[in-house]
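Go through this chain for my students:
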Amino acid sequence: KIDSEDYLHDLSLRSRASISGMQPKLFAVKKAANFYAANYEEPSTHIAKLAGAYPLIIENEFLTMKATEIL
């Protein structure tokens, strides 16, 4: 179960594939009400993004996407 920052960071480093970008991220699967790291043999349903070295990057991405949507 994905539920702590340290766990997410560790999983992002051991993920089955690399996802480019500035923030650490990993492939995740939603099962019932929880998210889990996708294993090598299953398709992911989500991408879990972590704050990492840039604490406001998630907010910045959200605002950028909203601005793009308006344009």
Helices lie at 5-14, 57-70.
